Amino acid sequence: MARATVLMVEDDPEIGPVYAELLSLSDYEVKLTTTAADALFELAAGTPIDILFSDVRLGDGPNGLWLAEQALKLRPTLVIVLTTAYSSAFSEVANKPYQLLLKPYKCSQQIVDLLEKSLCERDQRIEGDL
Amino acid sequence: MVIDPGGVREKLGELVATVKEMREQYRDHRQFIAEQLSEHRVSRERMEERLTNEIKNVRAEQRQDITAQSGKLELLGVQVRDMAAQTKTVIEDIEDFGERIDRTTADVSSLKGLRQNIVSYGAGALAVIAVIAWFIGPFFSSLATSIIAKVTK
């Protein structure tokens, strides 16, 4: 059984499939999309998803920050991890309930650690609310 | 020497006019330089901003490339480890198969020996039966003849 289901949004064809495969090897179920619109469709369609793992810059369409805001409106308990190669993005996500991971990753374990940490924090938050 | 006050006044007037004109020229020149400097500063700031953005983009592209390459390397490492494990299993299977072939070969050899023995013993037994039949054959033959004779009387 998978640890959790990750909706990965990555427009770079060199990166998306590779990290989707690596996360699959770490027992995550991964759904890969390349645009914010496709990802939002999955969320709106009610697909079981625990984590949204999205690049901040997504080509010419809406970016990851926009997607994160829309996703939280649809699913307030969704874990959101954003990733980018631009260190300036840290100021853009300040005071927002997202984790930010800077590229390049040291290894896929770095992503796994962050996903696990984010899931634990979400579970604690939910237990605290109850 | 006779000083002409009118001439001096006139010279002074010319001098003052010249100074005024030079001051105005100087002011215009200063203003021109200030404007040029301002434009240059704006242009330099724009260029710096553009260069900064380009450097950011280049760095980001490098980070993307490194991310892609390191991910591919990691995935290749996993695949190589999988292949090594599969190869080890295949080698173990081949070794096991070799041992089974050796055992089967030994079994076949012992079966061949057994068959040889059976053939040898069979031939001996046949010879013994033939000799016995040679000696007791006439007795059984006369016995059979007398029985038939009695029955047919």
**Average pLDDT score of chain A:** 93
- What would you call the structural class of chain A? alpha/beta
Give the class of chain B from helix and strand content and strand pairing: mainly alpha
Query: What's the β-strand tally of chain B?
Result: 0
Helicity of chain B, as a percent range: over 70%
Average pLDDT of chain B works out at 92
Largest sheet of chain A: 5 strands, parallel
H and E string of chain B? H
Q: Report the total helices of chain A.
A: 5
Using only C-alpha atoms, the radius of gyration of chain A works out to 14 Å
Terminal Cα separation of chain A, in Å?
A: 27 Å
Uncertain segments of chain B are: none
Instruction: Please estimate the helix content of chain A.
Output: 40-55%
Would you give an account of this structure?
Chain A has 130 residues and is of the alpha/beta class. Helices cover 43% and strands 19% of the residues of chain A. Chain A has a 5-stranded parallel sheet, with helices on both faces. In chain A, helix 2 (36-44) packs parallel to helix 3 (64-74). The longest helix of chain A is centred in the last third of the chain and has 22 residues, at 108-129. Chain B is mainly α and 153 residues long. Chain B is 97% helix and 0% strand. Chain B is rod-shaped, with a radius of gyration of 64 Å. Chain B starts with a helix and ends with a helix. At the A-B interface, helix 1 of A face helix 1 of B.
